[in-house]
Write a structure and sequence with these properties.
Blueprint lengths: L2 H25 L5 E2 L2 E2 L4 H7 L3 E11 L9 H6 L8 E14 L4 E4 L1 H4 L4 E5 L5 E3 L1 E6 L4 E5 L21 E6 L7 E12 L10 E4 L11 E3 L5 E8 L10 E5 H14 L5 E2 L2 E5 L2 H6 L8 E6 L4 H5 L6 E5 L2 E2 L3 H9 L6 E8 L2 E8 L1 E2 L5 E2 L10 E8 L2 E9 L4 H5 L6 E5 L2 E2 L3 H7 L6 E7 L2 E7 L1
Length: 454
Amino acid sequence: MNAPLIKQLLLISILSVCLSIPLIAQAAGMPPYIDGQPLPSLAPMLEHATPAVVNISTSTNIQVSENPLMQDPFFRQFFNVPNQSRQRQNNSLGSGVIIDSNQGLVLTNNHVIDKADKIRVTLHDGRQLTAKLIGTDPEADIAIIQIPANNLTQLPIADSSQLKVGDFVVAIGNPFGLGQTVTSGIVSALGRSGLGIEGYEDFIQTDASINPGNSGGALVNLRGQLIGMNTAILAPTGGNVGIGFAIPTNMIMPIKDLLVKHGEVKRGLLGVTTQDLTPDLVNAFNLENKHGAAVSRIESDSPAAKAGLEPGDIIVFANGKPVKNSQDIRNIVGLLQIGDKVDIEYFRGNEKKSVVATIGKQEQPRLAGEKLHPLLKGTVLGVTQKDQIEGILFEKIQTSSYTWRLGLRPGDVIVSANRYRVHNLEELKKVVDPVAPLLINIQRGQEGFFVVLR
C-alpha cells in the first residue's frame, strides 16, 4: 500500500474518531474541545444554509369519475341526484430552495407542484405563504415558484462541474413531512443518465439519505453552497438503500433563467436519433474511438440533415463538451434554443470531421383522442422520443375519462397499436379502427404493459 493512500486512510480514521468524541464528551460532561481546539462540526454551515430550504405543501382538486348512468338526466332525476361535479382533494409534500431572496424565487421539482391548485410554502422561521407558479419544465423536472416575503435567505450557487466522486455533501429537506431534516454523505457518482426518471438526465448520485418529501430540497457542499436539487431515489425494496439522485446546478440554472423569462422551456430541434456505442457497434464500424453517440437516424430537412450529418456518424463533441453517450448529446441540445448554433465534432469511419448546425423549431403535432377513437375521448395525443423510445405521448388525460379509469396517465407512451409498431400519429391513424376494440402497448418509464379499450 503506497504512502499517500495510507495517509488518506489515516486522516479519514482521525476524522471519524473526532466526529464521535463530542457525544462521549457531552455524556461525560466534558467540553467539546481537544487541546483547546474546537471539534469539527457541520452546525455553523447549516445555520446559514437551512433557512434557505423550505417546506412545500400542495392541494389539487381531482374530478372523481362516476357511473355513466348517473350522467343521464333521467336517472339523476329518478334517483334525486344533484347535477354537480364530484371532486376530491389530493395533498402532497415536498421541499424547495430559495435561490433569489430579492425576488422571492424558490426552486423545486416539477413533480412536487405538478397540477397543484394551491401551493403553500412554510419557511424555516414558521411563516406560511401562498406561492405563485412562475414556470415548469416537466422533462427536466424543474419548477420555479415565487413567494411574497421579505428577509429571506438564499443559498449561494456552486459550479457543479467542479464536483468529484468522494466529495462530502449534505442533503436538506422535509422527508415524510417530519419537518426540516439534514443528512450527510458523499458524492457516489457523477453524470448518471439512462435511468428513465426524467427526459433529461445528468444526475449527481449520493448516499446521503433522500426519502419521500426530500424532493426539491438542497444538496449542498461543506461550504453551504447549492450543488444540486434532490430529486429521486433508487428503491427496489420500497425504502432508501443509499442511492439518491440530484439534478446538478449547472443543468438547473440555464433552465431557471428560461423559466423566469418565458415561463417554459421551448426546446429546439437538431433532428438526430442517437444510440450508445456498444462493443458490437465499435467492432461493426471498425472504430478506434470507443466513446460517443452513434447517429442512427436523421430527420429529413432537419438542421442535422442540412449540416451534412449521416447515419453511422459518431458524435464525440458538441459545443466543446465531450459526448460519451446518447444522453450527453440529448442534454446538450436540450438546453439550446431555436436559432442557437451547435458545433459538432464527429467521426465518419476513422476520419474526424466538424460541422456547425443551427437549432430549428420543433414541430409538435397534436391530436384530440376522440378524433382517432371514441374511447380516447378526453385525451390529447402528441409524439415523443423519450429515453430513445419513439411513440405517441398521452399529453393530457381528463380524470373523468374512460382512459383514466383504465389506469392510463399523462406521460404514458403508446409504442404499438393492434400489434403494429407506431412512431407517429400518421402511423397510429392507419392501424386504428374507430368501431373496433383497440389494443395498445404502453411504455411507462422502465415498465411496459398492454391495455385494451373496448
